[in-house]
Amino acid sequence: LLRHPRSSLCPSSEASDVYKRQGELPDQARGLSQALARARQRVAAEGPVPAGRLRQTVAAALGKLPAAKLDYVEFFDPRTLEPARVVRPGTQMALAVYIGKTRLIDNATL
């Protein structure tokens, strides 16, 4: 078992303590995967969606989380990395969200 050099706690206990101090970070962080899932569902159900409208969908989903602040959400072609103006199945989505002082980054293929 590895221990942090300045602590008698094991790393997972330290992380748990940090989460408690930061207001249930794991619960808030689940909102990222929910926002990704919402974007994926919308693209699957509607077909091509303008990127701006899908950004609004993601922002609205994250807006339900009291500690979340959207840093960015981008849509792009996974082969060329060119930004996508219209989001279709197979488009890549990347987002960064602050939960308190912690910045979380995620991505998914829609």
Describe the structure concisely:
With 110 residues, the protein is of the alpha+beta class. It has helices at 11-21, 25-46, 51-63, and strands at residues 49-50, 68-76, 86-87, 92-99, 102-109. A hairpin with a 2-residue loop joins β4 and β5 (102-109).
Indicate the topology.
Elements: H1 11-21, H2 25-46, E1 49-50, H3 51-63, E2 68-76, E3 86-87, E4 92-99, E5 102-109
Antiparallel strand pairs: 1-3, 2-4, 4-5
Q: Distance between termini? A: 39 Å
Shape: globular
- Give the strand tally: 5
**What is the residue-mean pLDDT, rounded to a whole number?**
81
Q: Portion of residues in helices?
A: 40-55%
The largest pleated sheet is described as: 3 strands, antiparallel
| Poorly predicted residue ranges | 1-19
Strand neighbour order, sheet with most strands: 2-4-5
Radius of gyration over all CA atoms, rounded: 17 Å
* Residues in β-strands, percent: 25-35%
- Number of helical runs? 3
Secondary-structure-based class equals alpha+beta
Please write the string of helix (H) and strand (E) elements: HHEHEEEE
